[in-house]
UniProtKB/TrEMBL annotation:
<feature type="transmembrane region" description="Helical">
    <location>
        <begin position="466"/>
        <end position="486"/>
    </location>
</feature>
<protein>
    <submittedName>
        <fullName>Suppression of tumorigenicity 7</fullName>
    </submittedName>
</protein>
<keyword id="KW-1133">Transmembrane helix</keyword>
<feature type="transmembrane region" description="Helical">
    <location>
        <begin position="35"/>
        <end position="58"/>
    </location>
</feature>
<feature type="transmembrane region" description="Helical">
    <location>
        <begin position="12"/>
        <end position="29"/>
    </location>
</feature>
<dbReference type="Pfam" id="PF04184">
    <property type="entry name" value="ST7"/>
</dbReference>
<comment type="similarity">
    <text>Belongs to the ST7 family.</text>
</comment>
<dbReference type="InterPro" id="IPR007311">
    <property type="entry name" value="ST7"/>
</dbReference>
<dbReference type="GO" id="GO:0016020">
    <property type="term" value="C:membrane"/>
</dbReference>
<keyword id="KW-0472">Membrane</keyword>
<keyword id="KW-0812">Transmembrane</keyword>
Amino acid sequence: MEMCSRDLWELTHVLYFLCPFSVVSMFLNTLTPKFYVALTGTSSLISGLILIFEWWYFRKYGTSFIEQVSVSHLRPLLGGVDNSSPTNSNTINGEADSTLVHLLSALECKVWRNPLNLFRGAEYNRYTWVTGREPLTYYDMNLSAQDHQTFFTCDSDHLRPADAIMQKAWRERNPQARISAAHDALELEDCATAYILLAEEEATTIMEAERLFKQALKAGEGCYRRSQQLQHHGTQYEAQHRRDTNVLVYIKRRLAMCSRKLGRTREAVKMMRDLMKEFPLLSMFNIHENLLESLLELQNYADVQAVLAKYDDISLPKSATICYTAALLKARAVSDKFSPEAASRRGLSTAEMNAVEAIHRAVEFNPHVPKYLLEMKSLILPPEHILKRGDSEAIAYAFFHLQHWKRVEGALNLLHCTWEGTFRMIPYPLEKGHLFYPYPICTETADRELLPTVFHEVSVYPKKELPFFILFTAGLCSFTAMLALLTHQFPELMGVFAKAVICREY
């Protein structure tokens, strides 16, 4: 009796495992080779679509979509670790240090007005007419509109009819509507800001823009003198005087830039020096960067060094113009006789070491510049706004200063031989800097808003590796595509192989 019950239990156990196997075998025997072709082909198509989407998302946003969704949404649901309540003081101090670093990086992510920005009508629009491409992004032009409203308007504009019209004109999105409003304002009176708008957007040549800016200067000086006498009579008059000061400084700076573009460089230098003496506190316009470029054009290196001594200070914000001009002057002293072979044999002299250190300092501040100076990457027209340490600043600097590096014999050769050594000094630039704060993590996003990505590939630093999920989907797509091809070519053999694999599982 005991033997019978045990045999019955073993028989039941065998049948329990054989039944699913028999069902699976019957199901597999009914499948045709076309099913396997369709299965593998569909799998390859789906994984290919996922790969294309992942690649597009990575190129646009710099991260994997699947990874972002996993970290943002799935990890909390699966009970991810909450780091908001550290258990010891060391963790608190570490988080405080990390927060401080990110705050300092955020300050460096501020978008600045390009001090050497081109004229919209005489330069940007001419480029559009010739190439059919738009050199400025909507985000960049919107920032310019905000700048104009900040610098050229005030709360008391409604008291002067022409200024009231211009206040609305600066808010217009349509260029023709802005130009038409400026003409309407000039019919009422000589309005400095109306002349500015026409010089910037309607004038098709630099000479025409200069003529309009001279008319703006005449009107602006009159408003400035009147508001200067009344500035202490109340808050309203003080705001008017501040606005009139901004208008006058802007006009004089643009007139100096017109002189520089028309070849009257010495006149431009004099105008910039006078402007900096007259309004020493208005450093937000960064007129010293215009002055540095003009002095380099004159090859007046002693005066360039004097300007650097004043503005390349630890307490003042840096820029690519400051750092790379300092490196150019150091390189100029040794570049004509520099030879990498000779330097490797005898070592670097003190002057050569100073030049190399200056180049490393400049490259750490903005690592995108060397590729443009060495013409490893093509230049485009600089935007109206730049992000310091970003690709936009590198384009703006190289666009105007490449000629000055070419003029110094051997300077580009020295840069070519030494600039990549910077990255060995700062292997983890996002966590730790060497001479500057860690490289800000926000530059790529801001540069993609400032630069026309339709025909320009934004430079990214540090270079990002492909996310795991892109590599995974690429491998999956390739594997399933290969299976689909083999199944299509050898349907019977692949059918037998699939059945054998599944049966082995059971």
